Amino acid sequence: MSPEKAHMDALVAQLEHHNYRYHTLDAPEISDDAYDALFRELQELEAAHPQWRSPHSPTLRVGGGLLSGLDKKAHRRRMYGLDNVFNAEEWRDFVERMRRALPEAPLAFWCDPKLDGLALEIVYENGILTEALTRGDGETGEVVTAAVRTIKTVPLRLRPPAQGGELPARLEVRGEVVIFKADFAALNERRDALGQKTFANPRNAAAGALRQLDTTATRSVPLRFLAYSLGDADWGGAQPCTHQSELMARLRDYGFQTPPSGRLCAGPADVEAYVEEVRQRREHFDMEIDGAVAKQDDLEAQEALGHTARAPRFAVAFKFPAMQARTILRG
Q1: Same structural domain for residues 301 and 233?
Q2: For 195-246, what is each residue's pLDDT tens digit?
Q3: Catalytic residue among 72, 73, 114, 152
Q4: Domain contains 178
Q5: Using CA atoms, how far apart are residues 63 and 276, in angstroms rounded to an integer?
Q6: How far apart are CA 17 and CA 23, in angstroms?
């Protein structure tokens, strides 16, 4: 290997590390100026040696291409929505239906806040990001790979397991694209100052930005991706996950952010307490949430329970009432 190629690979690894520290862990190790200097050095080397540009180079986040239109593509596994429950009685009915369908199923549930964003699937082959699709109608989604590459919390390459071992041959990571409330307020302030139309809410802004044909426009919106499940998975030589709680830890190891305050609940009553806790703290989350989600923790039980025509039988969303506020019309 030539010294230039080796140096380019080392720069890619350094920049990946610092990007993860800054955007995912919120714990930077170097200054912005130092990061920018490394980034510019890599750009110059890639311009001089384009044949050695890495398929997961951080420079791919820059975007700037104008797409002719968004292609559509079928999901390998359908992306379902969730059925809703609105109170403890409906939740207990859901648990009873699950118990009747699979009496041997354990009653531990992974719970996390229900994010109010745009559902997304990101495909990794041998650890490298190759494609990203919106949920669309569940069967077919829009291809938004170029836009997703600009999201700094999306790993372009999965981080290798800390304990060693292989990365999956193929992994379809599913989650939500959101904009944090503070970032959304700052975005609207900038747009207002420039005389541009402001966004109605973070979800609309995220959905519009992800579907932009000009990825420079996508990059100007502070999108974040939080991972919470899988679609199709070929673990190859990697150790498969057996529980949802294990999967969430694995996703964080791979370099993803996951929904905040997620935890394993030992039984249905513990889930009810968790939901009330999230409801009480709703305004204090960094992003908009509209409920909480409970998923059967055992992945084998998830597969055995399967799906109805529109939703999984192993998971349900607790929906919260819409936020309300009073205002005074002055003119």
Answers
A1: yes
A2: 999 998 999 999 989 988 888 888 889 999 999 999 999 999 999 999 999 9
A3: 114
A4: yes
A5: 42
A6: 10
Tell me: do 102 and 212 sit in the same domain: yes
The residue segments making up the domain with residue 11 are 5-60
CA proximity to 13, closest of 52, 47, 57, 51: 57
77 within a domain of the structure (yes/no):
no
> Cα(23)–Cα(152) distance, rounded to whole angstroms?
6
Q: Which two tokens stand for residue 66?
A: 């104008």
Residue 324: HSE in the Cβ half-sphere, 13 Å Cα cutoff: 3
Is 114 annotated in the active site? yes
Nearest C-alpha neighbor of 146 from the set 79, 68, 203: 68
The secondary element (H helix, E strand) that includes residue 40 is helix 32-48
Q: Please, which residues have CB within 8 angstroms of residue 164's CB and are 6 or more apart in sequence?
A: none
> Do residue 170 and residue 54 come from a single domain?
no
Token pair, residue 238, equals 């990697």
Q: Three-class SS of residue 216?
A: helix
Tokens of 55: 């398929």
- Percent of the chain past pLDDT 70, that is, above it, reads 96
Residue 72 located in a structural domain = no
Q: Do residues 299 and 244 make contact, with C-beta atoms less than 8 angstroms apart?
A: yes
Residues 139 and 194 in one domain: yes
Q: Which residues contact 270 (CB under 8 A, 6 or more apart)?
A: 109
129 and 266 both lie in a single domain: yes
In the chain, the number of structural domains is: 2
